[in-house]
Design a protein that fits this description.
With 245 residues, the chain is an alpha/beta fold. Helix content is 42%, strand content 14%. It contains seven helices and six strands. It has helices spanning 18-25, 29-50, 69-92, 108-121, 137-153, 163-168, 219-230; strands at residues 10-14, 54-61, 96-100, 128-135, 184-187, 206-209. Helix 1 (18-25) crosses helix 2. The longest helix is centred in the first third of the chain and has 24 residues, at 69-92. The chain binds 3-methylbut-3-enyl trihydrogen diphosphate (2 copies) and magnesium ion. Residues 14-16, 58-61, 64, 191, 193, 195 line the site of one 3-methylbut-3-enyl trihydrogen diphosphate.
Amino acid sequence: MIDESRMPVHVAIIMDGNGRWAKKHGVPRVAGHNAGMEAMKEIVRCSSDLGIKYLTVYAFSTENWKRSQEEVSGIFKLLVKFVKLDLDELDEKNVRVKVFGDYSVIPDAAKKSLDKTLEQTKDNTGLQFNIALNYGGRDEITRAVNHIIEDMKAGKIEGEVTDELISRYLYSGDENGNVPDPDLIIRTSGEERLSNFLLWQGAYSELEFTDLLWPDFTPEAYKALIEDFQHRDRRFGGRKDEPAK
Ligand code: IPE
Ligand code: IPE
Ligand code: MG
């Protein structure tokens, strides 16, 4: 059973395995991404019901542009479908949608739908659902550094570059307080790597892997991983048998 007093505040998910799922079922890769969207919807609902405060999903990486034009445009079309069809439900559930990544470069239709979603849900106070889109951890840190240099030159900020300053300039930085670092990062499909996801924020995240392909991932599987996470001993470099200084 999940211990409701020890819920992760922020869960991040690398939704991997759509292509292999499609292959297994003898359908085009885009059909795998479509099945993946359905799984994502369920997990958003479930996260909201569990009272998780932040959910970040890796939807498209800065490296995924290497894929065929057909697959890339298929993924963005599906995203438009998702935000259009599910916007009202997200809104009703008090979900606030955010994007991590530079989405100015994605196709126009997808950008417009996303803008509408961000605007419509911006004052919601329930689950914050971050979609990592055209996201890469190294790209995020590089952009932050360039932005800091710009603001220093313009006299908007001064002094030393600190850990906190960098955090504030990342996509997870927020004028109303940063998104806390993910407590738990889940990756599906049996791959055990970060693939450039949340490199800065994931410094002390617990990692959970499952062999399930993303379209086969269910709320039950999700809850089982959260339960496993709750048994982890998180030390953050300190010692459990000694109070932190
Ligand atoms: C994850 O599934 C979704 C994206 C990267 C957009 P994949 O498409 O990477 O699926 P596999 O890894 O080929 O099975
Ligand atoms: C990571 O999956 C990106 C997303 C899930 C969006 P990939 O399938 O692109 O990662 P690699 O290539 O296996 O490392
Ligand atoms: Mg993959």
